[in-house]
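Posting here for the record, re: D-xylitol-5-phosphate.
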Amino acid sequence: MIERNFLFAPSLLGADPLNLAANIDSLGANYDWLHLDIMDGHFVRNLSFGPEFSRALRKRYPNAFIDVHLMVDRLEVILPLFIEAGASLITIHAETEPHLLHASLSMIKNAGLKAGISLCPPTPAANIKSVLDLADLVLVMSVTPGFGGQKFIDSSLDKVRELVSFRAVNKHNYLIEIDGGINEKNITCSIFAGCDVIVMGSAVFRNENPGLWLAELRAGIKEAMKNFGR
Ligand code: DX5
Ligand code: ZN
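Prediction output follows.
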């Protein structure tokens, strides 16, 4: 049996803004991607990082896989700023200017980056069927976007299962990422449901030793996968 892989993407929104580099370094080699939440105070009711932060992150961590999650309106202005700012992958929301979804995904891919599509909790997976062939990743929001530390919405895993089945039926290649309210209690069932990439903010950075916590979590999940034949 081929062992399924899963990736950890700690969200910097959950880190201490005055100690970001120290917080990233505290992860050691126990993370896969760095998740960067971009909020514009319009698409969501919060503000976070700008393109200069993304650029600085790339400079300081040249080999990191930087996973940018754009929760913004006015994609025609914001997207080019982040395409030039060191991202490895950029995810845009299906709800942001849906008529531009195809063009925006193509713009990301034409720049040589990976492209993702995100769905807010009320948005059905079927809404993005026609653009799934362009997606390297589909991000399922498991909380209302805007803030860290919220409670996981259980029905999100039904959407994950649906995306697993679309992918199999249509021979797509996208990874499925889950974002919001993930912790040690719900991570294993999220991976069993089909999530490939796990974003975690508060659950990671509230720990005294985030790197050790991630290492132990990874080992525990691998053990559970073995025991349940996943
Ligand atoms: C929410 C963000 C998430 C957030 C996750 O809008 O997209 O990435 O940082 O934080 P936790 O893991 O605390 O829910
Ligand atoms: Zn996010």
